[in-house]
Amino acid sequence: MLILVINAGSSSLKYQLIDSATEAVVAKGNAERVGIAGSKLSQKNGDQAYEIEISMPDHIAAMEQVFAALIGQGVIADASAIGAVGHRVVHGGENFSASVIINDDVLAAIRQNVPLAPLHNPANLMGIEACQKLMPNVPQVAVFDTAFHQTMPEKAFLYGVPYEWYTRLKVRRYGFHGTSHRFVAERAAQMLGKPLESLKLVTCHLGNGSSIAAVDGGKSVDTSMGLTPLEGVSMGTRSGDIDPAIIKYVMDNDSLSIAEVDTCLNKKSGLFGVSGISSDMRDIIAGCKENNPRAIAALEGFAYRVLKYVGSYAAAMGGLDAVIFTAGIGENTPEVRSIVAKGLGFLGAKLDEQKNQGRTECDLSTPDSRVKILLVNTNEELAIARDTQALVAGN
Predict the structure, then answer these.
(1) How far apart are CA 384 and CA 395, in angstroms?
(2) Nearest 5°: phi and psi at 260?
(3) Dihedral angle, C-alpha 67, 69, 74, 78, nearest 10 °
(4) Using CA atoms, how far apart are residues 55 and 282, in angstroms rounded to an integer?
(5) 111 and 209 belong to one structural domain
(6) Beta-carbon neighbour count of residue 52 at 10 Å?
(7) Would the pTM count as exceeding 0.90?
């Protein structure tokens, strides 16, 4: 079965066409600047690359261009070749603990959770509605970033705030990147040759957005992101954990509005805010090699916060079998992995520095390391395709 995986943003629509039998990517592309002047679509299938600048006033127009590219470049004969569509949906709230086939009730629940993800869920809905209009008879599946973390116990997801904030406003820890955390945890168990149910893992999804998860027996029992993706470790442009009193203090001193402070915390903080150079870890590393003190502070601060979460989750689970590094920074930045691994020496973790210089999936630890250190290549699109295939086949 050919499965179309859709990740719709407010002004973009990324897609991959995956053959569920071989799990090969047949084609992938991105419609950019949807609803904005200068919109274009780019696509790759094998060695062929295709790009067109064309007006895409909305996501329906973007999907029409996706079909035009897939058919025009000979990837598929027509839209009927697509057996199912899997959609990334950011926030499922407490409604969903697993992926589901989309129906009217599912759509209503996604809309209900818009206040929890006002930048993401509306865009995800637009992608779903565009596909439903153009492929009315093709099953659509929603795969939620938050679903994997719904196994967290109450002691982990409740905040120390008035309980009615939870009952009335649904203020609690939800966590994100769940599809990635689940995928790499399952892959780690395969690499270790052990049942996932027997393992205590900490999965580190480190990229422009970063989150850490404690995975005990295959279930998420805690994670660093919270009600929103702002909480946790510092990230590319997000602050991560801060004293909440900082917000009022800065507002009062600099005469800023809550919206302006929110923008600072989400878009002007993290690696970018500390370094003053960039939100891209590659630029931070380059700055470190030039002995830029703020770049060094940004790198060390980022790694230190990752280390603190890994250590705290090892304590929360009562042990640790492996630490997994994944995503853009986790897979491609040996410096971060090295700092974190050295800090875990008290647990018996030992990093093979030669292996650590690589960027391909492997066990980075020495043979005598009591805690394994793994580099795992995440693949959220494949995870979405697998969930979609399983649900459609079982329906």
Answers:
(1) 16
(2) -70, -40
(3) 10
(4) 34
(5) no
(6) 14
(7) yes
Give the CB-side neighbour count of residue 40, counting CA atoms within 13 A: 7
- Angle CA 358–363–365, to nearest 5: 95
**Which of 144, 160, 175 is the endpoint of a domain?**
144
Check residue 174 and give its pLDDT: 96
Two structure tokens written together for 182: 């689940």
Let me know: does 62 contact 42? Beta carbons within 8 Å.
no
* Per-residue pLDDT, 23: 94
Instruction: State pLDDT tens for residues 143-170.
Output: 999 999 999 999 999 999 999 999 999 9
Residue from 145, 216, 222, 387 carrying the catalytic annotation: 145
In a domain, 285, yes or no: yes
363 classed as catalytic = no
How many domains in the chain? 2
Same domain, 133 and 202: no
Whether 28 shows a pLDDT value over 70: the answer reads yes
Q: Angle at CA 161, nearest 5°, toward 206 and 118?
A: 50
What's the one-letter identity of residue 241? D
Write down the residue that tokens 């923008």 correspond to: 263
Whether the pLDDT of residue 247 is over 70: the answer is: yes
Confidence (pLDDT) at 11:
83
In a domain, 185, yes or no: no
What gap in Å lies between CA 81 and CA 2, rounded to an integer? 7
Cα–Cα distances in angstroms (integers) from residue 92 to residues 14, 31, 106, 116, 147, in the given order: 20, 25, 9, 9, 7
| Dist CA 121 CA 112 (whole Å) | 10
Residue 265 one-letter amino acid: L
> How would DSSP label each residue in 203-258?
EEE-SSS-EEEEEETTEEEEES--SSTTSSS--SS---S--THHHHHHHHHHT--H
Q: What is the dihedral sign for C-alpha 144, 149, 155, 161?
A: negative
Residue 89 to residue 111: CA distance in whole angstroms: 11
Tell me, yes or no, whether 170 lies in a domain.
no
Residue range of the domain that includes 291: 194-380
Asked if the structure places residue 37 within a domain, the reply is yes
Question: Which helix H or strand E contains 76, and what residues bound it?
Answer: none
Choosing from 83, 114, 144, the residue where a domain stops is 144
Q: Would you call 14 helix, strand, or coil by DSSP? A: strand
